[in-house]
Amino acid sequence: MIKIQNLTKKYIRGKKNIVDALAGFDCKIKEGEVWAVIGPSGSGKSTLLNILGGLDKDYSGKVIINNKDLKKYDLNYYRRHVVSTIFQQFYLIPSLTVEENIKLPIIFGKQKNKEELNERLEYLLRKVGLTKRRKHRPNELSGGEAQRVAIARALMTNPRIILADEPTGNLDSKTGKQIVDLLLELHKEEKTTLIIVTHDLSIGKHLNNKIELLDGKRKK
User: Fold this and answer.
1) Where are the chain's structural domains?
2) What is the rounded distance in angstroms from the CA atom of residue 5 to the CA atom of residue 152?
3) What's domain 33-54+74-218's superfamily in CATH?
4) Measured between alpha carbons, how far is residue 148 from residues 13, 14, 15, 60, 157 in Å?
5) Single pTM value for the model
6) Nearest-angstrom CA–CA distance, 46 and 78
7) N or C, which end of the chain has less CB nearby within 10 Å?
8) Burial level of 210, CB count in 10 A (0-12/13-18/19+)?
9) Phi, psi (5° rounding) for residue 198?
């Protein structure tokens, strides 16, 4: 599913200050696997996620997704149908209701018929436990509920890869564990490839597949 070879990303901070966000990073992730990418701030986690999410094309090395070079994808198609990202900050639209936020990814482009989309929406509302909150707006939700909306929105288009960027970063430990459990449950049902990027070592303890990043390199 994902094959990364010698991935390198540099940031230029002035004429003489070049930062290696990623320095020769390699990994292979099979379809349907769950991986945790762990490391302190500045280790390259967010840079890796931005590249995998199709948000940053300015890198060297190879990123192969489904036997195709990421740089050869139509990135609008890629971000809509292949990969979806769950962010720490939720990024919900304040003026929209829960169900309207979840349906955002399907507003553009030709997809399933209306009946199938409504079935998908109802299924996701049930799975994230927000059926009774569907008409509420983001300012009426708790942090955990807002993250559940973000998870449902990410899954709306049936993506094959889910990237979770510090999904528990703005939550207390109890709510954070519930969110991770929900992600793992949905991963099994949806048969997605799931990559959780986090600085929380406790998440990595529960997963067999881990990548530890330090100074842009994979820790051995």
Assistant:
1) 33-54+74-218
2) 31
3) P-loop containing nucleotide triphosphate hydrolases (3.40.50.300)
4) 37, 40, 43, 35, 16
5) 0.91
6) 19
7) C
8) middle
9) -160, 155
